[in-house]
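A reminder from the course coordinator: this example appears on the midterm review sheet, so study it carefully.

Given structure:
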């Protein structure tokens, strides 16, 4: 007996004769294939292809099933500027070097816009590194954003609770604003609050027994924090309420805001651990509606004790309809947050209920400003210069009458994204963000409004050069959705909606608990923070090359706009 035989003899499984097993396995496979062939050819009468090509025709559906999940490897560069942009996000979010060799998929000769570099460039150390923008300076509580980049609107519900918690952690860590999306403020945005740092008068608390806490500590030691947390939550909080409670890991308690408590119990200042949150109010009024579905000023006042400013969503790039959340995503938690019935399709009205005309909308904006004493703006998509001039005329009239106007306008380009949107609208509605910025800046200047209104821009922004380009077009602040999604682990499988029983494979944009539970909240929050930091570092690098010291010096004159590859 040689040494190899001696080695295998020590392991019964390896020493066994497997030939019989493989023969049985092969026989079972052959029987199964023959059965499928007979079924396709002679029994089923729903698919013509399988009648003509039994068994083999099923490969088509296998490849079709793999098409979207494999899209990030083969198809992305046909949609984005280049595959290298997506690769850049993945690298910087994982703290890897993003430097490239040779040229990109789409080299300089195919770029439509070039930056004008300076004759004598600056050192990076000589340019701006701390970026900030102030909204609503005239209000009691203005918002001084500590970044010029924020995460665009993504609702808790369209994004999984774990994904929302990762974004909230990343935003708090890197001090950039995060927009709630039209789903409103939920416990997951407040995930870093601690129970003992708050007044318990407006909180609902649940605490485990000594046994439950002991189980948590043991599971924490032998597995990891996420599994221990999940088991402890199941032991302490009932199923229907499970996702709406915040977990305080230090004190091992679960708590959530009791919105029924009088506003006098709510904190005057935003509590510690809360990121800079922009509350988005959509046509469904989720999170600030009464039992009849109407606007509830008292609830709104309470919500704004945790948020920096309000964005009223009038329109979005990829859809000019109300928000759409399929039943698969309307869990008990989402129903609790939004004040709707669980497990039913949730389609918001197309038109914002307090925006039947321009005067009504702007009166509502002023009402929100009076309640919150904080900045309020609107999110719109531009159709033409003439359409936007209707806004400008109404704003100018109010200003002349001594009334309040919007503090900011969020411009979404027609190519703005959405997890759930009708195909007939995705490529046919709205001007591009660059054309929109030119129109809005020109019109606001013409009507003497530009100094009063900040402009937030968003549409397919991925890398620092995208940010700088929009700043040159006149934006004050940049919202990013896709880039942050990719940094959080999105593989662009295009299964965000949850339609047809298919869910986000990474657990980022699904309410499927089996997939959600495996999402790495802490790890991905670091990736999100790294991505934001790399964006700002890249902006500083471009400023140096362009001979600028601050972003306020950027303008359209710093761009070479090309046609047919020529400036």
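Designed residues:
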């Amino acid at each position: 007996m040689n040494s190899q035989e001696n080695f295998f003899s020590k392991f019964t499984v390896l020493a066994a004769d497997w030939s019989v097993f493989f023969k049985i396995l092969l026989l079972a496979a052959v029987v199964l294939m023959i059965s499928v062939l007979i079924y396709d050819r002679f029994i089923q009468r729903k698919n013509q292809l399988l009648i003509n090509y039994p068994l083999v025709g099923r490969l088509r559906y296998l490849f079709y099933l793999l098409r979207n999940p494999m899209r990030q490897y083969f198809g992305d560069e046909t949609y984005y500027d280049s595959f290298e942009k997506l690769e850049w996000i993945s690298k910087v979010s994982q703290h890897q070097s993003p430097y490239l060799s040779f040229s990109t998929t789409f080299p300089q000769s195919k770029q439509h816009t070039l930056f004008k570099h300076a004759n004598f460039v600056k050192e990076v150390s000589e340019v701006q590194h701390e970026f900030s923008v102030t909204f609503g300076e005239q209000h009691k509580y203005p918002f001084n954003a500590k970044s010029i980049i924020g995460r665009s609107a993504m609702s808790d519900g369209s994004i999984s609770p774990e994904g929302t918690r990762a974004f909230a952690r990343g935003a708090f860590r890197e001090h950039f604003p995060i927009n709630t999306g039209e789903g409103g403020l939920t416990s997951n945005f407040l995930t870093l609050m601690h129970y003992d740092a708050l007044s318990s008068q407006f909180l609902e608390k649940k605490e485990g027994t000594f046994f439950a806490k002991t189980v948590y500590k043991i599971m924490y030691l032998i597995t990891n924090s996420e599994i221990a947390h999940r088991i402890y939550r199941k032991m302490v909080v009932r199923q229907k309420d499970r996702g709406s409670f915040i977990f305080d890991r230090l004190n091992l308690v679960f708590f959530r805001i009791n919105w029924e408590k009088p506003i006098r119990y709510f904190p005057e200042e935003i509590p510690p651990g809360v990121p800079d949150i922009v509350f988005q109010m959509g046509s469904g009024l989720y999170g600030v509606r009464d039992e009849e579905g109407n606007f509830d000023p008292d609830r709104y006042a309470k919500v704004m004790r945790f948020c920096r400013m309000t964005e009223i969503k009038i329109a979005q790039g990829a859809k000019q309809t109300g928000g759409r959340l399929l039943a698969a995503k309307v869990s008990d938690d989402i129903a609790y947050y939004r004040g709707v019935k669980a497990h039913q399709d949730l389609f918001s009205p197309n038109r914002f209920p307090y925006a039947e005309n321009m005067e009504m909308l702007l009166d509502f904006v002023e009402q929100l400003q009076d309640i919150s004493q904080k900045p309020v703006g609107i999110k719109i998509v531009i159709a033409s210069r003439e359409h936007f001039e209707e806004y400008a005329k109404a704003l100018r009239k109010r200003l002349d009458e001594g009334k309040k106007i919007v503090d900011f306008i969020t411009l979404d380009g027609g190519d703005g994204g959405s997890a759930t949107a009708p195909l007939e609208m995705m490529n046919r509605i709205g001007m591009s963000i660059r054309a929109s910025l030119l129109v809005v800046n020109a019109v606001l200047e013409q009507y003497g409004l530009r100094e009063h209104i900040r402009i937030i821009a968003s549409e397919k922004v991925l890398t620092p050069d995208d940010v700088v380009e929009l700043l040159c077009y006149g934006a004050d602040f940049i919202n990013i959705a896709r880039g942050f999604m990719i940094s959080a682990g999105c593989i662009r499988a295009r299964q965000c909606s949850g339609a047809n029983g298919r869910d986000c494979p990474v657990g980022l944009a699904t309410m499927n608990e089996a997939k959600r539970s495996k999402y790495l909240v802490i790890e991905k929050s670091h990736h999100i923070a790294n991505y934001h930091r790399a964006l700002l570092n890249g902006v500083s690098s471009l400023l140096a090359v362009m001979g600028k010291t601050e972003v306020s010096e950027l303008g359209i004159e710093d761009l070479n706009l090309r046609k047919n590859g020529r400036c």
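Residues 19-43 form the longest helix (25 residues). DSSP finds 20 helices and 17 strands in the chain.
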